[in-house]
Amino acid sequence: xxxxxxxxASSMQQWQALSAQAEAGVLKIPxxxxxxxxxxxxxxxxHLEGMVSQTKSLVDxxxxxxxxxxxxLGEKFERIAYSGDRSLRVVLLQHIDVIELMRSVFRxxxxxxxxxxxxxLKSITDIAEGVGK
Length: 133
Known about the structure:
The chain has five helices and no strands. By secondary structure, it is an all-alpha fold. The protein is flat and about 60 Å long.
């Protein structure tokens, strides 16, 4: 798991550097590309948030039984999945932080009104395609 945490820290540093470059005007991303990347990031965040909400129910400590060793094993799995400082839930939340930083880089490239218009158009198109099926 240590390698994964180093990878997350590295990703966060890379996106912080890209954010600084975008702020300085050194990094340029076409508006349409930024919009598409933002949409993908938003969808991925929703997916990760769903996974985070499921981590609480991954382990039922009581299901391991009443023996002390069974209870200890159940508690260990619960820490790995949810409550530990390096649990799956924490790692997922760290991934969400990186994706949010990515979104902040992409969002610099489109006007908020234009973004709202494009999101509305995309929603209408998605609804129309759903009705046509």
